[in-house]
TrEMBL record:
Species for this entry: Vibrio eleionomae
Any Pfam family: DUF1989
The DUF1989 domain, residue ranges: 17-185
Organism superkingdom: Bacteria
UniProt-recorded name of the protein: DUF1989 domain-containing protein
PANTHER family on file: RE64534P
InterPro entries linked to this entry: DUF1989, UAAP2
Length: 212
């Protein structure tokens, strides 16, 4: 559902630009509002959420889909953890739909989906692993990489129950905004994918904003 925000960028307490192929790792405090903005359109932001006080608790696609009765995420969706707690709630969305089934690209999936020579291409899972290796104080490793959300990504479900990757439905300046229900650790890979149309074959930056 399309709902515009009443928050103004110039009042944000934190504002970052995330280049394509890079990662973003930051804590969002309970009560703060967090926005992901698709700067140039048709970009995919592969996102993981954790309870910042106990990172063993993380976003669960299964619980979120079951409780809301919808495989797509938009305004009003409560993002649930694997323990059934609300991590965040989407409070504004000008894109209208986000994917939580397609997963994240990896060197292995690039090989299987596309070609053996694509294996060494950069992938979202690599970005996440790099982030965790560069922040050993978190005590996290590859076993902590679980369900993710592909914000702005268009992954329709076929009549046979399969998934397809299609052109995005976002556009320059579209955003999704979430309010944190607990202290949240956010880990984003700004998808570098060049093999399918999720980024229009042209990965671009996204912007991240936080308000108190």
């Amino acid at each position: 559902m399309i709902v515009e925000s009443q928050l103004h960028p110039e009042q944000a307490v934190c504002r970052d630009v995330l280049p394509a192929g890079d990662y973003y790792l930051k804590e969002v405090k309970k009560g703060q509002t967090f926005r992901i903005l698709d700067s140039e359109g048709n970009q995919a932001a592969d996102t993981l959420f954790y309870n910042a006080r106990n990172t063993a608790e993380h976003y669960s696609a299964v619980d979120t889909i079951r409780e809301q009765g919808n495989v797509y995420l938009s305004t009003g969706t409560k993002l649930l953890s694997d323990q059934g707690n609300v991590l965040l709630e989407i409070v504004a969305d000008t894109c209208g739909r986000h994917d939580t089934l397609g997963g994240a690209c990896a060197t292995e999936s690039n090989t299987v989906r596309y070609a053996i020579e694509r294996k060494c291409m950069h992938a979202c899972r690599d970005s996440w692993l790099l982030a965790l290796s560069e922040h050993p104080e978190l005590g996290m490793d590859k076993h902590d990489i679980t369900h993710n959300i592909n914000f702005f990504m268009n992954v329709p479900i076929t009549e046979e129950g399969g998934l397809t990757f299609e052109d995005g439905i976002s556009a320059p300046g579209k955003y999704v905004e979430m309010k944190a229900h607990m202290d949240i650790l956010v880990l984003i890979s700004n998808c570098p994918q060049l093999n399918n149309p999720c980024n229009a074959y042209n990965p671009t930056p996204v912007e991240l904003l936080i308000w108190d």
